[in-house]
What we know:
Order of helices and strands: HEEEEEEEEEEEEEEEEEEEEHHE
Mean pLDDT: 84
Strand content: 25-35%
Radius of gyration: 29 Å
Structural class: alpha+beta
Number of helices: 3
Amino acid sequence: MNFNYIKVGFVAVAAMASLCASSQDLIARQAPIDKKLKSVDSLILQKQIQVEQSEFPAFDLYPSWNQTSVHNYANANIPETYTFDLTGFHMPTPSTRITSKFGPRRGRMHNGIDVKVQVGDTIYAAFDGKIRMVRDQGRRKGYGKYVVIRHDNGLETVYGHLSKHLVKEDELVKAGEPIGLGGNTGRSYGSHLHFETRFLGIAINPALMFDFESQDIVADNYTFNRRKTGRTSSGTMVANSGNVIKYHKVKSGDSLSKIAAQRGVSIDTLCKLNRITRKTVLRPGQVLRCS
Length: 291
């Protein structure tokens, strides 16, 4: 009888050991599945966040989705500094001719730059974003037919004096997608694109970010500084470019002498600012400080 009890005990212990081993195998097999499920959940969450961000570009910066005013953000909380990612850009037009620069003009502030285009030329979105406004201010008034886009990087861009709109309000656009056709509408005396870059209603000189002559951005990033903003006589907020550091993105065929002439500085100044010599070989894509 004792042997039978012992035999039964061994069988029970073996069964329990087998059960534990099976459980451990099950847990071991389950672990990779859990990791995969977590990975899937994470991807779904990331996609959901991307969808929400595209629906409401820069929602953490802007107080509202205002569709009645181009640049009225009186209640906005303007950060001390903010860096814009300019990569993924597309030039709004292939035209390289600037007909009017940013700044005071005939007693009033010109809050953008004018680029020569012909009536019917295609105008493109500068960055990914969402169309905030598509309006027509009428003959000889303001922007004429214009489009305002709020971008994922925090900027807003304005495209004025169009002859035709190619987008609608609340439409999502990608950088490089057509948004309108060049024209001569509104307060305009000759066909051109009036192009503005704004941050929470504050006008920033587009030339600090876009190099129309080279059809490229000036650098991969631009940092806005609230302390370098001021009001014009008309009350418009503008970013002061007087003390802003300017950069040049090296293109194929560029030389120090060519860059110096283009940026209005001496070769020695370029060398000193960038800690290089006149014999330094420049690389396409390299960013040089110019001021």
